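Let's practice the habit of predicting before peeking. Look at the sequence and jot down your guess about where helices and strands might fall. Then scroll down.
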Amino acid sequence: LIMKEHPSPDFLKSVDSLTHELNENFGKYLDDFDGDISVFRDVSKMMRDKLLISLVYPLNLGKTAKIRINSYEKSIIERAKLILKERKSDHFYVSNFFTKKKKFQIKDAEVILHLIQKNIFIPYLFDKVQDSSN
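Done guessing? Here is the structure:
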């Protein structure tokens, strides 16, 4: 999920899949590009979905009321609250969860992605865009 030096085979597969999907959906527009970029408005969503880039965006906390969460999810949410309090900020990064002592854990990333899907962790940039459109 997160690279240090060389991309993982899974990441390369995701990039390859995204490339093919982009070509299928937008290849004809690129071949005959006339300057109209509105046809590419779904590219960002495709990239977020295929490459799981929501892990690099700043995140903030959504509401947890009425949403079922397990004990491990709760521990991740509590860690996020602590990070927010320590940083005196309204957002945090996934990288804030990891220190030299506590290395990157795949399970943590999977749980964070699941919390993003449940809208408990909300990509900060998209939250601001949605708020301004109301």
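How did you do? Helices lie at 9-31, 43-51, 71-87, 106-117, 124-132.
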